[in-house]
Design brief:
Keywords: Signal. By secondary structure, the chain is mostly beta strands. The protein is built from one helix and eleven strands; from the N terminus they run H-E-E-E-E-E-E-E-E-E-E-E. The protein has a single domain, classed as PCu(A)C copper chaperone (Immunoglobulin-like).
Length: 160
């Protein structure tokens, strides 16, 4: 699924430019979920997903999204046919150095939105055979502690 953002000129364009400089936030119109699984009262929804394009000569990249669950759950694994491994990683500063480590279980508290984003918790996609460019898409399957699985198609695009 491709996400489309419409910008009303000129004020929204100014807001977008400020956001790119880290000076303001731009919210998208009510985005449709990239995917959801489960029934009412037990649904898991994923919004605003994307995968960062890959630099030349690099076989890995990062993925970002937002997940909301109606009941307590957790992401326990992720996979993609385009990568040898997909892991949930977190970045934390320790002794003045940013460190990244795998997270075996990503808690999803009921009713809260968990964001996977740059410089924080994110999907680490490792070992691609081919480089991904803007406009490509990546199938990713998330498996949850509840036993449910959700396959998403994440667009490859620069940060927004």
């Amino acid at each position: 699924m491709t996400l489309t953002y419409r910008i009303a000129k000129p004020m929204a364009l100014c807001a977008l430019l400020l956001a790119a400089c880290g000076e303001a936030e731009v919210s998208s119109p009510a985005a449709a979920p990239l995917g959801s699984v489960g029934e009412a009262g037990a649904a898991i929804r994923v919004l605003d997903g994307r995968v960062r394009p890959m630099a030349d000569g690099v076989s890995g990249t990062a993925g970002y999204l937002r997940i909301t669950s109606d009941q307590d759950d957790a992401v326990i694994s992720a996979r993609s046919p385009l990568f040898k491994a997909v892991e949930v990683h977190e970045m934390k500063e320790a002794d003045g150095v940013m460190r990244m480590r795998p997270v075996p279980r990503l808690p999803l508290p009921a009713g809260e939105t968990v964001s996977l984003e740059p410089e924080g918790t994110h999907l680490m996609l490792i070992g691609a055979d081919e480089s991904l460019r803007e406009g490509d898409s990546v199938p990713v399957t998330l498996t949850f502690e509840s036993g449910q699985s959700l396959t998403l198609t994440l667009p490859v695009e620069e940060g927004r």
